[in-house]
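Consider the following assembly input.
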Amino acid sequence: MSKLAIALLVGLFGLSACGDKEGVVVYKQGNYSGKTDGKPWENAAFAGDKAKWDNGIRARGQNQNESKRIGD
Amino acid sequence: MARMKFLCDSERCIECNGCVTACKNENEVPWGVNRRRVVTLGDGLPGEKSVSVACMHCSDAPCMAVCPVDCFYKTEQGVVLHDKDMCIGCGYCFYACPFGAPQYPQSGAFGQRGKMDKCTFCAGGPEVDHSEEEFKKYGRNRLAEGKLPLCAEMCSTKALLGGDGDVVADIFRDRALRRGKGGEMWGWGSAYGKPEPGTKKPEVKS
């Protein structure tokens, strides 16, 4: 009796890993259905502060203007 | 909100290919792919012009329009990115893009090609920011570090500008107004010296 119970338990445990998981990406015509991407300010460096990121990028962009950065 | 754009000033580009090298190194781009290239018109002739070309992150991107599996998406900043896990490597985006931005790594023998690869504006892709997975598939995510694409940031002559479209346009407008010609050009005085007051121009012999 106990052997049968053990065999059943082992069988159930062994089969527990078997599942019918969807292996194919479901395409929705005209819509992006891939993974979602995070926002560039949602990380440790900016802690979700969008304004800080925006201002930083803007200031960094202005550094490309050498006539303002180092003068004429 | 920032809308990311590139602009290459052909008056300044000296075809040094620094942007190409920087991109290759920063993103560890696969063999056979150059996300950025320098194109020269009238090479070797007087008045030749060079321009650095990569993905232009189009507002109405043709690559997005033709992709049969819709693996492209656009971020809030207007950067066109794609999910490599969905890409089937069909090549439609390559044919649709007027800039030749989408490219394919040569991943095996007999012309076998891998997933499409293109410029990401150094914004990574749809994986956890700064993860190993993101770097392997898409390269460095500089935007999430508060930095601009390396190609533009390290351009020695500042021919290649990148960043918020408004900022880039302002810089270029300011530059075009100051540029002038001949001795009026920016940097001319530093390079050749300014004319001393009272000196006459040499007479031109006819």
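Chain A has a mean pLDDT of 83. Ask yourself how this observation constrains the way the partners meet.
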